[in-house]
Amino acid sequence: MKGKVVLAYSGGLDTSVILHWLLEERGYEVVAYTADLGQREDLEALREKAIGIGASKVYIEDLREEFVRDFIFPAIRANAVYEGRYLLGTSLARPLTAKKQIEIAKKEGAVAVAHGATGKGNDQVRFELTYHALSPGIKIIAPWKDEEFLSEFQGRKDLIEYAKAKGIPVRATKEEPWSSDPNLMHISFEAGELEDIARRPRESMFEMTVSSKDAPDKETEIEIEFLKGDPVRVRNVTDDTVKEEPLSLFEYLNEIGGKNGIGRVDIVENRFVGIKSRGVYETPAGTILHIAHRDLEGITMDREVMHLRDSLIPKFSELIYYGLWYSPEMEVLRALFDKSQEHVTGSVRLALYKGNVIVIGRQSPESLYDQGLASMDIAGGYDPKDAAGFIKINALRLISNTLRLRKDVSKS
Amino acid sequence: MKGKVVLAYSGGLDTSVILHWLLEERGYEVVAYTADLGQREDLEALREKAIGIGASKVYIEDLREEFVRDFIFPAIRANAVYEGRYLLGTSLARPLTAKKQIEIAKKEGAVAVAHGATGKGNDQVRFELTYHALSPGIKIIAPWKDEEFLSEFQGRKDLIEYAKAKGIPVRATKEEPWSSDPNLMHISFEAGELEDIARRPRESMFEMTVSSKDAPDKETEIEIEFLKGDPVRVRNVTDDTVKEEPLSLFEYLNEIGGKNGIGRVDIVENRFVGIKSRGVYETPAGTILHIAHRDLEGITMDREVMHLRDSLIPKFSELIYYGLWYSPEMEVLRALFDKSQEHVTGSVRLALYKGNVIVIGRQSPESLYDQGLASMDIAGGYDPKDAAGFIKINALRLISNTLRLRKDVSKS
Amino acid sequence: MKGKVVLAYSGGLDTSVILHWLLEERGYEVVAYTADLGQREDLEALREKAIGIGASKVYIEDLREEFVRDFIFPAIRANAVYEGRYLLGTSLARPLTAKKQIEIAKKEGAVAVAHGATGKGNDQVRFELTYHALSPGIKIIAPWKDEEFLSEFQGRKDLIEYAKAKGIPVRATKEEPWSSDPNLMHISFEAGELEDIARRPRESMFEMTVSSKDAPDKETEIEIEFLKGDPVRVRNVTDDTVKEEPLSLFEYLNEIGGKNGIGRVDIVENRFVGIKSRGVYETPAGTILHIAHRDLEGITMDREVMHLRDSLIPKFSELIYYGLWYSPEMEVLRALFDKSQEHVTGSVRLALYKGNVIVIGRQSPESLYDQGLASMDIAGGYDPKDAAGFIKINALRLISNTLRLRKDVSKS
Amino acid sequence: MKGKVVLAYSGGLDTSVILHWLLEERGYEVVAYTADLGQREDLEALREKAIGIGASKVYIEDLREEFVRDFIFPAIRANAVYEGRYLLGTSLARPLTAKKQIEIAKKEGAVAVAHGATGKGNDQVRFELTYHALSPGIKIIAPWKDEEFLSEFQGRKDLIEYAKAKGIPVRATKEEPWSSDPNLMHISFEAGELEDIARRPRESMFEMTVSSKDAPDKETEIEIEFLKGDPVRVRNVTDDTVKEEPLSLFEYLNEIGGKNGIGRVDIVENRFVGIKSRGVYETPAGTILHIAHRDLEGITMDREVMHLRDSLIPKFSELIYYGLWYSPEMEVLRALFDKSQEHVTGSVRLALYKGNVIVIGRQSPESLYDQGLASMDIAGGYDPKDAAGFIKINALRLISNTLRLRKDVSKS
C-alpha cells in the first residue's frame, strides 16, 4: 500500500473505474468522498457502490447549507455572471467540494487527492487550484491527465469494458446524448449532441424547469427580502408560503422558478483552458435572485459605487469561473464587493410568469430614492439652475477639444 | 428682433408655450425643429401648430435611418446597457436630435438654440453637452433652468393657462398620470404615478408591447444575420419575411418583438444630475438584437477580447447615458469597441415567446468554436497533459500565498 | 446679526478681506478657523490678525498628526498619484480642513461655513463637497463665486484697497509672481509667471528642497520599515537617527529629502472643473515613501492583487483629487486597497542622492520572493516541464485566432 | 536528417551547446539565427562560431530600426510600464525576434524552431506564444524544458564540459556573478548575486549608464519633439546636435542619458510563470522618452481620455510582459491607445542631470492648455458662478448618502 488517497467520487462510471484503478493499478487505499450539493442522488446507494468497488471508507458530506450561504449568496451579492450570461452554478460548487476533500485528506492522513474531471474542462482547474491553494504540496492524481490511464482508457467503451471485467456495476439506463451535472444552484448540460451549436436542445433534456409553454397561465407573485445583499426571506404572495433559511429559501425558489420555466440559458462560453464550449444551464432560483438583487441595488446603492462595482463584475465572475475562489485577488475583490452591499437591504416584489421574472415593486428602509425629492429639500433643495452650471463646467473639456479640432482643420 | 433661435419642438404643451414665450417675451424669431425619430406622431399637424403659434419656419427632419444606423447599431455592437438593464433608447436619440439642431442653427444663422427639457433630468445634459461640443460658444436657451421662466411657470397649470390665454391649442385628451417619450428604439415612461416605486405600472400604459399574457401561444422563430457586429438581415423562419435595411429590419423586429411581449424593463436608475429616478421602458427590437448579438460574440470573439471589453461596457454605457456621445473619450473607446467587432459575423436563430427571447442556434463563418476541436489538431492537438502544467504554473502564486499565511500563523 | 459663520482663515489678503466683508457687508458674526497642517506660519500672529479684523473667536487646530496618519498614509498605501505624477499634497489636506471646520460649525452653532478658494480651482470643490457630505444642507459662503463679491473685487488691487480702507494689515513683502500653498506633505506653486508653461520655474521659488546641484555629494542612506503598508520607522543608516511616530517620521523625511533635492515635479494637470493648469510641487517625504512602498510591495504583494489594484490607482487618485475623500465610492475602494496592504510589511533601504531615491535593498518577514525557489520545493518544486503545458494551453486561443485569420484571407 | 530547425542563436554557451545538441543528438540540420537588436556584439565572430559548431546557415538580421519604430515607440506612446517601474526592454524585443525567426523558418522550409530560454523565465513564454500565434502547429524545441536535455545538462558545469568535449569554443572571460541581456532599449541583469534582494548591485555591473556620482556637474539640456505620440526629433540645446530618425534619435538618447546616469531601476517583479524575480535594468533613452511623453500628454490630452487610458496601462503593459504582443486583445487595446495619441504632438524641453530627467518646458500646436483661459472666452468664458451649480449637483449623491447614514444611526 502506498497510503491513502481521497477520491472525489460521484458514483458514475468514470469515478467508479478510477476508484478501482487507484486501488488495483496504483496500489492506494481509497477513501471515497461525495459532496452532497443538492444533486438529488441516492447517496446511500452510492456509498454501497463505493464500498463494493473497494473503498476503505466513504464520506458523504452534506454541504448544501454551506453551498448556499457561503458560495451562492456571495455570487448573488456580486451579481456575478460569466460572459454576460452564465450564473456560475458549477464554478461555485467546485471550490467547496475541493475544500472539504482537503479537510478529509488531512483528517485521514491521506497522501493524495484524486478527481475524475476531464483534461479539457474547467473543473480540473477548479479542483486542482483549490487543492494547491489549501494544501500546498499535496499530491494530486488526475487520471484523465495521466499518461497510463489515458492510454488504457480511450473512451467510454474502454471504461465500460473495464467495469464489466472488474465487476463494477454499470447503470443499465441508456446513456443520454449529453452529459449533465446537477447541484442546488443549477443543472448544466454539455457535450454529445449539444456540441452542434446550431441545434436546439431537446425539450426532454431539461430537468429543473418546465418549458415556458407548460408553465401556469397565471403569475406567481413573490416578495424577496434582502439584508446587506443576502436574501433572508421569500414570501409567496398568493399562498403566503414563507421561507427564511438560506437553504429552504433557495430550494423554494428553485421549485417555483422551475414551475414557471425560469432560468434556462444556452451559450457558447470560453473555458479557462482556452477553448470554446457550449453549455446549457437551468438556474431557476439563481436567476430570480439575480434579478431581484439588481433591482434592489437600484434604490439602495450609490451611483458611483455601482458604476465602479459594475466594471469589476467581469473580473469577479472570471475568478469564480477560473477556479480562483481561494486566491488573494478574490480576497481583495470581495472586500470591495462586500463593502458595496452594506445598504442593500429591502424587498422586491416579483411576478414569475412563463420564463419571465418581472419586477413589480420594491421598497427599502435604506432607499436613496427620493419620491418628490423630499430629503433634497432638507439639503437646500434641488435647484434646476444649478444644473446650468453643472452642464457648463462639464462642457468645458468638450469645448476645448472642439476648438482644437477646428484649429487643426483650419491649418490643413 | 434679437435674431433667430432654433427650438427643439415636440408639439407638446411645454415646447409650444416655450415657442410663444421665446417669441413674445424674449423677442426672438423662432425656427421650430422636430426630429422624426420614429415617434409616430402627426408631423404635419405639428408643423401647422408651430406655424400657428408663430414659428417663422419649421424643420421636420427624418432622422430614422441615421438613428438606427449610426446610434442604435453602435450601441448594439457594444452591448451597451446602463446599470445592467437600461438599453439607452432615449440617451441615444438626444445627441442626434441636438446634432441636427446645430446644423440647422448654422444654416439659418441662428444666434441660439433652445430646448424644453426639464432642469432635473438627463435630457438637458445630453442636449446641451452636444450643443457645446458641436458649436462651442453657441447661446443655449433652456427655459426650465431660466429664472424668469421658472417664476412664471410653476407647474403644468400655469402652462395651460398661458396657452389658453395666448390661443395655443391644448390637446383635449386627458393627461395621463405619467410622461412618456417614444422613438424608434423604445418608449420610456416616468413621473406621475410611476414615482411610487412600489407600484406596478398599469397594463394599459404600455404601447409598443403586449403583455406576455396576451402574446401568441406559439413561438415566432427568426434568424438574424450580423456583419461585423451590425444586423444586416432578419428572417422570419415561419413566414419567410425578410428585412435587410437597417430601418426596416429594426421596425420589423419592433413589430414582432412587441407582439411577443418582449423588452419591458422597470428600473430605478441613477441620473447624471445625481438623483435616482424610476423609468419603465419598452425596447422590443433592441432587446432581441442585444441578446442575439451577445450570443454571436460567444462563438466569434476571443476570450480575452471579450473579458477586456466587458469590463468597459459600464463606461461605454455611462458615456451614452450622460450625454457624452460627442466626446474625445467616446472616440477612443469606440476605437476599441469597433475593433472588437471585426469578426462578429454570422447568424443567430431565436424563438420569441411570451416575453422570452430564446437562442436556439447559431453559426458563423468566423467561428472560433471548434466542434471536436478539429482545428486544434492542425496545431498539434489539445493534449490533456498540457493542462497539468498549466494548472501547476497557475497554482504557484497560490501556493506561495498559502505558505506565507501559514508562516504568519505559526509566528502568532 | 444673521448668526455665526465659520471661515477657513489663512491669514492672507483674501481671507482677511473676506472676514471683514462677511462681518460688515453680510452681517455675520465670524469665527475664524485655521488648520495647522504644517504650513509653518506664525499662527499666533494670525490669531491676532483675525481678532483685529473682527473675528469673534479664532480656532487654530493642530491637525498635523491626523493629516499624516489618516490622510497622507492612506494615500501612500494606495500609491496614489494623479495623472501619473502628482502626489496629491493639497488634495489630501482639504477634506481634513473642511471636516474640522464642520465640527467647529456644529460646536459653535454656526449657520454657515465660508472659504476663500477661487471659483476656477479644485479647492473650492474639495471644500464644498466635504461640507455637503458631512453636513447636508449647511449654508456655504464662497465669496469668489458670489456675484456681489465678484463685482466688488475684480482683482488683487481691489482687495488691497479695501484692506487699506478698512485698516486690515497688508503684508509689506513684495508679492511673488506665483501663488504657493504649503503643508506638511508638499508645497504647491501655480499661477503668475508659472502660467507660461514653456518657462522653467526660477530656482529661488523652491522652498522645501534644494536644487540637486546644491545637494550633498554623498549619499544619505536610510531604511524605512513598513507595517501593513504604513511607514512605522525610519532610520538614517549613517548617523543612526531613528524616527517612529507618523509625524516626526514624516517631518524627518521631509528634512533629509529636501536636503537631497528630492520630490520636485512640474506638470500640467487636469482640474475637476474642466481646465488644464500648471502646477509645480515639492514633495520630499511623500516621494521617498511612495518609492519605498512600491518597492516593498514588489516582494510582499501577490501578482494578481497588484495588477488588479494597479488598474484602480487612477480611480483612487482621481477621487482624492476631485475632493471625493468622503464619498461612498471611496469607502468601497478603500476596502479593497486596505485589504491589499495586509502583508505589506518589511523594510526598504534607500540611498538619497541629488534628486534620486535609489532602492538599494529590501527584506520582509512576509516576503513572497523565494531565493532559489526554496519553498517551491515544499510544494513539489518548480518543474520547467510544467511551463511547456502552461504555454501551450495559453497559446490555444492565439492559435484559433490565427487559423481564423488565415481562413478569412484564403476566402478573400 | 529530420529536417531543418531554426535556432535563435546568441553565440553564448547555452545556445552553442544547444546548436550542437540539435545537430548531433537530435539529428536536425540547424539554421542559426541571430537578431541584431543593438546588443553590440561582434556578430561576424558569432556567425563564424555558429558555422564552426555545425550550423548549415546563419542569419544575422538587423532589426534595430524595426525594434525602435514598431516595438519601442508603441510602448512609449502607451506609457507602458510593468508593475509601476519596469519599462519592458526585454519583453518588447522577444516578439520581434520570434517573428523574424518564424519568417526564416518559413523561407527555409524548416520543420521546427528552437530557443535557449530557460524553463523558469518569461522569455520562453514570449518566444513560444509568438511562435504559436504566427505559425500555428509549428514544432517548438525548447531544450530547457526537454526531459533528456535537462537530465544531461544539470548546470553550467555540464555545458562547459560538453562544449570542451565537442570542441565548442568557450569564452575565456571570467563568468560574472549575474546574467545580463542587452539590447537597444536596455540591459537587464538578473540571477547570481542579484538573487539576494537585500544586496545592492555592484557599481561595476552597470554598462549603459554611469553612476550619478560620475555624471557631469552641468545639466544637459535637450528638446524632444513628438508627432502623434512618436518622438521625431531630438535636439541637444547646448551643442545643437539634432537627430531625427527613430534609430539614431534613440541611440543618441541612450548615449546622453547614459552619460547623465539616467534610467537605472532595481525591482522585484512578478513573472508570468508565477514566481517573483529580481531584475535590475538600465534604460536611458526609454526613461527620457517616457517622462517627456507623459509631460506632453499633460497639455495635449483630454482629461477623460487620459484617465480612461491610465486605467488600462497596467493591462497593456501586462500583455507586453506576458508575451502577448501578437494577440487579439492587444489589437483591440492598441486601437484605443493609438487613437488616444492623435493629438500628442509638440515638444518638451528637458534637463538631464545626475540621474534626473527634469521637465523644464513644453509647447504644442495641439495644446489644450489655455493660458489666461483665452479660448474659453470664445465659448462664453469661464464663469465661476457655474462652479457653484457644478459642485452642488455633484454633491447631491453625497448628501443623499449622508442623510441615509443618519437615518440608520437614528434607528439604531
Write up this protein.
The structure is a homotetramer of 412-residue chains. In chain A, α4 packs across α5. A five-stranded parallel beta sheet of chain A has the order 3-2-1-4-5, with helices on both faces. In chain A, 58% of the residues are buried. In chain A, β4, α5 and β5 form a beta-alpha-beta unit. The first copy, chain A, starts with a strand and ends with a helix. Chain A has two domains: 156 residues, Rossmann fold; 184 residues, Argininosuccinate synthetase, chain A, domain 2, CATH 3.90.1260. The first copy, chain A, is globular and about 85 Å long. Chain A contains 13 helices and 14 strands. Helix content of chain A is 44%, strand content 19%. Chain A has 412 residues and is α/β, with parallel strands linked by helices. The interface between A and C is medium-sized, with 34 and 34 residues.
Largest two-chain interface? A-B, 92 and 92 residues
What is the oligomeric state here? homotetramer
CATH-defined architecture of the largest domain in chain A:
Alpha-Beta Complex
Largest beta-sheet details of chain A: 5 strands, parallel
Question: Helix fraction of chain A?
Answer: 40-55%
